[in-house]
Specification:
The structure is a homodimer of 177-residue chains. Chain A is mostly helical. The first copy, chain A, contains 7 helices and no strands. The longest helix of chain A has 30 residues. Chain A binds a DNA duplex (22 and 22 nucleotides) through helix 4.
DNA sequence: GCAAATTAATGATTTATTCAAG
DNA sequence: CTTGAATAAATCATTAATTTGC
């Protein structure tokens, strides 16, 4: 490839010289989007091969291109939605960033609901379930923090401070443990 | 009048008295998912109460809703995985992994079925992966139709017409081959 | 009008999580 | 507790849009 990517080299994907990356034709994109909208989000290997065979009628294409396309499309769909929710969040000044929640490592899982079978039914009246162990920092943070929520915005908090300056007004005074 | 701003309200469950069922707000869902991914799979009764108190700031909610949410979420997680495994076996126990590709450096082709390992890397090179039969209805459907087709937005099309009459009219022949 | 320069999209890789089998 | 299989998120890299000055 000559230094300055010339027009010739960009011509479609038949890349005589081996274009660096797949460049889908409008037909291919249309078909892929149709499939995606139709509900196909993560095609199997078999499906990928079939799609590839079909789309190759409209231009050079490989299985991996199809694979990547779906991966990226799905991921960016999610990303879009997440951004909207984030915006919504910030607009309403809510809680710590989604990232900090999402990435929290935190193992936890000590709950035992074995005796909670009929919990739902009795929910409003009595709670015979007593197992606890609320040292989950995430939980703590989420349950406690309310207004501030500055925390980290990007790096997953390995160890967050458990309590914010103010212990959250009257959340649920009956803290076992 | 913020058109977009109404989303939250619409989803929220401020519902006119006696709403049939809980309808979580985006904030609630995000917080729940954050907790879930943070490691909380089966909250204890106490945790549920705390979560409920916390989430009630963003919309009407009851303890049982939280309880059910976690139950369902966990169950559907497993279900999803199980389905994949099932599909895998039904399809012939061979290829469902087009993503485990780059994890397998793929040393050599033993000469038989080992060729499916590194799909992405070898994608263009060797496709000796069994030519599985295309009986996949979804695929078929998807590959055929291309015109706007909205299908259902939720349920993946089980069985639709298999072949279109025309193989995609050249829409934009701007792509040289 | 036209390219160089800049920005937005999107294809391709890498890295982290997740579930569950051993 | 460790590890395999699959995925999703984050990131890198290149192409396409667009802006800009001439």
């Amino acid at each position: 490839m000559s230094a300055t990517g010339t027009v010739v080299e960009r011509l479609s994907n038949s890349g005589s010289g081996g274009g660096s990356r797949w460049c889908p034709t409008p037909e291919q994109v249309m078909l892929l989007e149709g499939m995606y909208r139709g509900g196909l989000k993560t095609p199997t290997a078999t499906q990928i091969q079939q799609i590839t065979a079909r789309l190759s009628l409209y231009g050079k294409i490989q299985g991996k291109n199809v694979f990547y396309w779906f991966q990226n499309h799905k991921a960016r769909d999610r990303q879009k939605i997440r951004k909207k929710l984030m915006a919504m969040y910030q607009h309403q000044r809510l809680l710590p960033s989604y990232n900090s929640l999402y990435y929290h490592p935190l193992p936890l899982q000590g709950g035992d609901m074995s005796s909670c079978k009929n919990m739902v039914n009795e929910w409003n009246v009595d709670q015979t379930c007593k197992k606890v162990m609320c040292d989950c920092s995430l939980m703590t943070v989420m349950l406690m923090d309310q207004g501030t929520s500055q925390y980290c915005t990007r790096v997953p908090p390995k160890t967050l401070q458990l309590f914010p300056t103010a212990p959250a007004p009257t959340l649920n005074p009956s803290q076992p443990q």
